Amino acid sequence: MIDTADRAPAGALPMIEADNLSKYYGVIKAIEGVTFEIHRGEVVAFLGPNGAGKSTTMKLLTGYLSPSTGTARIAGYDMSTDRLEGSKHLGYMPENGPLYPDMTPRSLLEFFAAARGMGTEDRQRRLGEVIDLCKLGAVIGKPISKLSKGFRQRVGLAQALLHEPEVLILDEPTAGLDPNQIREVRHTISRLGRDHTILLSTHILQEVQAMCGRVLFIHEGRLLFDGPVAQLTDGGRSLDEFFHEMSAT
User: Fold this and answer.
1) What's the CA gap between 27 and 238, in Å, rounded?
2) CATH no. for residue 77?
3) Could you read off the pLDDT of 57-109 as tens digits, one per residue?
4) Residue 77 falls inside a structural domain
């Protein structure tokens, strides 16, 4: 069920590339032989049941883990051997990513900007832009420990966007949010999808239709489906039915 044809012009550089990625912990297989490409301007959903290998794959793509075999590339850079260059093109929002609770959103963003070596003028410009994009103005001076889950997710997204990356990898960006918060994050990601390459994992199947043009489905560490969202409901089946069918494979 994997069809990777006709996604981009011949010779176009993939912005995200998994080339036969595998990760083993002793005899335990986390993922095996995962291969796909995501090109500029695509918004792709990464689906699968808990423990399927989604987070492991994302950590390999971002360089947080090294693969047992295969190669992960961001904007053409091998994330095992050239992670610093690849990271300049990448914004990563891990599930429940670390946010320092005693800091405010502003001080956290200033800290990350300084850590990335951003100049004063560039830093102030980008802080204003991401604060506006992620709608953080009302809480910008409050301790992160006092913020709702929804606002903490927005802070995490803002730090991922701070250095103007071309590629975004978002692990469960709507996890634990209420319907209103999900709607706000969905609108933000949809806006970002106009000029970014985005890979996001989610358990909320309706989010796939709302935000994504393509789906990758992983189960027991293997990629089982790679195709357009419209293919999920072929023959009148529901998204839940698709998920159940793929999980039972």
Assistant:
1) 36
2) 3.40.50.300
3) 999 999 999 999 999 999 999 999 999 999 999 999 987 767 899 999 999 99
4) yes
Contact between residue 76 and residue 38 where contact means Cβ atoms under 8 Å apart: no
Q: Which of 164, 186, 204 is the last residue of a domain?
A: 164
Domain of residue 136 covers 98-164
Of the three residues 129, 145, 164, the one that is the final residue of a domain is 164
DSSP string for the chain: -B--TTSS-TTPPPSEEEEEEEEEETTEEEEEEEEEEE-TT-EEEEE--TTSSHHHHHHHHHTSS--SEEEEEETTEETTT-HHHHHTTEEEE-TT----TTS-HHHHHHHHHHHTT--HHHHHHHHHHHHHHTT-GGGTTS-GGGS-HHHHHHHHHHHHHTT--SEEEEESTTTT--HHHHHHHHHHHHHHTTTSEEEEE-S-HHHHHHH-SEEEEEETTEEEEEEEGGGGGGGG--HHHHHHHHHT-
Spatial separation of the C-alpha atoms in residues 61 and 12, rounded to whole Å: 19
Which tokens in the block code for residue 203?
């358990």
For 113, the token pair is: 């900007």
Residue length, the chain? 249
Whether residue 207 lies inside any domain: the answer is: yes
- Tell whether 247 is covered by a domain: no
The tokens of 187 are what?
């609108």
pTM tops 0.85, yes or no: yes
90: its two tokens? 């990448």
Backbone angles phi, psi at 14, to 5 degrees: -65, 140
Query: 129: which 2 tokens?
Result: 């832009």
Low-confidence ranges of the chain (pLDDT < 50): 4-6, 9-10
